[in-house]
Amino acid sequence: MIQNILVVDDSETTRAFVRRVLGMCGFENDHIFEAGDGSAALGILSAQPIDLVLADLHMPGMGGLEMTRHMLIQPRLREIPVVIISADPNAVRMEDLRKQGVKGYISKPFTPEAFRSTITEITGAIHA
Amino acid sequence: MLELSNSLLEASLSRALEVMAFISGMPAEQLALPEGPLLATQIQYSGAISGGIQLVCPLRFGAILVSNLLGCAEDSPEAARRACDALGELANITCGAMLREIVAGEPGLVEMSTPTQKTFAPQGWPALVDSGACFFEAEGCLIACLCSIGKQFA
């Protein structure tokens, strides 16, 4: 069951927006964590049980793909699904991301309904 | 080429605003200098194609955007604090959507820079109007969108 979710994006507004959309999907606000880049995310992952990571691809410092690679080599983190949320324009990159362990991709801009659909598809469950 | 690119940029901006912030707009007819501080947000891109986009709008529009995205009051401290960040993210999403249309099916990758922002001086407004930029009106705010192909903004 998905309970704790980590949102990783260098845009504070985007993190807050994703938090809001997750709330619309029924996830509790206290169970949503935030990080501004991949390094900060790995710090949270080392200290806090997380069930799902939603990450931007391109961020100053460590990006979403490099963060995913770090997660995949750690036994405790490798099973946590990572969904990339990005404005990246390269469609070919999505397939490449999947090959490198990313479980899903949400293109910006996204509607709350499309977001919910993708999260449900990946996690198999949504709260509300 | 410029006209086509600017039109695509405007369409991408319109879609980004509607999909994520439920903000509708239309091509602007009155191009008078907006009131209040103006912010210019730029993104450069390179790779299969190179160039850049620039969005110029009142900073107030950033607060409106935050208000719509997060459900807070437009005049709240939260909206004011996040206004620049929201406009940067809007430019990021708009540029990505525009490039997605341009490079669809084309070989090679396009990489976008992170947004850069600076205050736009009012005395630069007439030149912006004459530059071929598209002007879009949303929530009572005028937004100028300009795209360059093959040349990056200074």
Structure description:
The complex is a heterodimer of chains A (128) and B (154). Chain A has a single domain, classed as Response regulator (Rossmann fold). Chain A starts with a strand and ends in a 5-residue tail after the last helix. Chain A is 41% helix and 16% strand. The model of chain A has no long low-confidence stretch (mean pLDDT 92). Chain A has helices at residues 12-24, 38-47, 64-72, 91-99, 112-123; strands spanning 5-8, 32-35, 52-55, 82-86, 104-107. Chain A is globular. Chain B has a single domain (6-149), classed as Chemotaxis protein chec (3-Layer(aba) Sandwich). In chain B, strands 1, 2, 3, 4, 5, 6 and 7 form a seven-stranded antiparallel sheet that branches. Chain B is globular, with a radius of gyration of 15 Å. The model of chain B has no long low-confidence stretch (mean pLDDT 92). Classes of the chains: A alpha/beta (128), B alpha+beta (154). Chains A and B meet through helix 1 and helix 4 of A and helix 1, helix 2 and helix 3 of B.
